[in-house]
Protein: Pathogenesis-related thaumatin-like protein 3.5
Amino acid sequence: MAQLMPLLIFVLTLEQLTSGAVSTTFTIVNKCEYTVWPGILSNAGVSPLPTTGFALQKGESKVFTAPTSWGGRFWGRTHCSQDSAGKFSCVTGDCGSGKLECVGSGATPPATLAEFTLDGAGGLDFFDVSLVDGYNIPMLVEPQGGTGQNCTSTGCVVDLNGACPSELKVTSVEGSEGVACKSACEAFRQPQYCCSGAYATPDTCKPSSYSQIFKKACPRAYSYAYDDKTSTFTCASADYTITFCPSPSTSQKASQGQQNTPSTSPPLINNTMVYEGAALDDFSGSPSTCPHAFGSHALAGVVSITVAIWRLWQLF
Ligand SMILES: *[C@@H]1O[C@H](CO)[C@@H](O)[C@H](O)[C@H]1NC(C)=O
Ligand SMILES: *[C@@H]1O[C@H](CO)[C@@H](O)[C@H](O)[C@H]1NC(C)=O
Structure:
C-alpha cells in the first residue's frame, strides 16, 4: 500500500487540476503613449488577486492568475502623481486609497471598466467592457484560447474623450484637453439616465441620446445599465488579455483569419463613423483565439485525457 501512496497523491493532484479548479491568466498590456495605473477591485466574497493597483509604463505588460470563480473589475487610472506628503492620486479612475494599491476601493467615475465573472452559470466566464460609469481610456478585452458561441473580443477602442459632448466632458486641470467623458447618469443624476426609481427595469429604462453616443462609437460596450444583450460575452476555458489603447492596425492583423464571429455580434468599432485623427476604416473586431495560446487550460485538457486513459486501463 505504502508504495501506492505517491501514485495516489499524483492522481489526486491531477483530479484537482481537471475538476475545474484551473486558474485563469490575465495579461494587462499598456499600448498607450503614456503611463497607465491599472486598478483592480474584486467582488465581495471572492479571493482577491495578488495586486489591486500598480503602474504600467508605456509598452509594459503584467501577467497574473486569478483563482477559480474570481469576479471583479479592471480599469485604468491616468494622470497620476504623488504629492509632497506622499499621497497618491489620479485625475481619472482614482480609487481614493491615497496609494498605488486600491485595497478594496473602486474607480471614481468616469472610468472605462472591464468586468469579469469567471466560472459562472454553465461554467462560463462572463465579461464585458462598460461605459455605464463613463469613459476615460480605450480598452480591449481579448479572450485567448477559449470556446463558445460569443467568445469574442469586446471593448471600446476609440478615443471618446475628444468626441465627448461638452456637457459630459471632463477636462484636465490645466486646460481644455478632454481626459474623460461622464455618463449621463453621473452628469445629470436623473433616474431615467441612471435606470433607478421608476426606471429601474429593462422595460422602463431606455437608451438616451447620450448613451447612444457611446453605443454608436463602441457597439460592443455597455452604454447604459440594461444594455446586456449586445454587451455581455461568454467564454469557456479562456485566458484574457486586457489592452489599454490597443492600436487598431495591430489588432486587425491579430484577428485576421478568424471566421467564427457570430453574425449577431455587433462590430467592435463602428466603422461607418469617422473619428478624428485615426484611420479606423477596416477595423472591425473579431475573436482572437490565437492558435499558439496554449495556456493552463490546454494543459488541463491534456492532463484530463491522461487521467481518462489511466482510468480505462485500470478497468482491464
Ligand atoms: C454606427 O454609426 C452610424 C452613424 O452614426 C449609426 O447610424 C449606426 O447605427 C451605428 N452602428 C452601430 C452598430 O451602432
Ligand atoms: C452572449 O451570450 C449570453 C449568454 O447566452 C447572452 O446573454 C448575450 O446576449 C450574448 N451576447 C452577445 C453580444 O451576443
Q: What stands out?
A: Residues 215-216, 219, 266, 270, 272-273 surround 2-acetamido-2-deoxy-beta-D-glucopyranose (ligand 1) (CB under 6 Å).
